[in-house]
Amino acid sequence: MTTVKFTVDDERLESIERILREIPFVHDIEVESNDQKLQEPATQYERIKKILDDAKGKDLFKDIQDPVEWQRQIRKEWDRDF
Question: Per-residue pLDDT for 40 more than 80?
Answer without folding.
Answer: no
